[in-house]
Input
Amino acid sequence: MSITRRTSLTDTIALSVPARPDYLALGRLVAASVAARADLDLTSVEEVRLAVDEACTQLIAVALPGSEILCEFRIEPGEVHVTASVDHDGTRHPDQDSIGWHVLASVSTGLAYRLEGARAMLGFRACRDSA
Output
């Protein structure tokens, strides 16, 4: 007998916290919960958790003092779309040659960084392992 959870609806969850490293644990916790809700396998859940941690770390490094980081998770069956954003002055950008950036790129799909007005945004997608 096999029991499989299915997410039939698309849901969006948002988390807004001060853009400081001491709030990274909260982002990791929500990321893991959202990934599990999307019915990702355990390896993929851990990869989403790691990717959100690294995305937030990258954005905290370029955030304006006192700003909030906003993480939005769109849940679909078997995948999660993540967008993290922070207030930004346009002068600093994530170091795309850093080890952290390469870790983020290796555990996510479609990694993209962009500026939208006064917000720096990182987005990616994570899917259930097809193996």
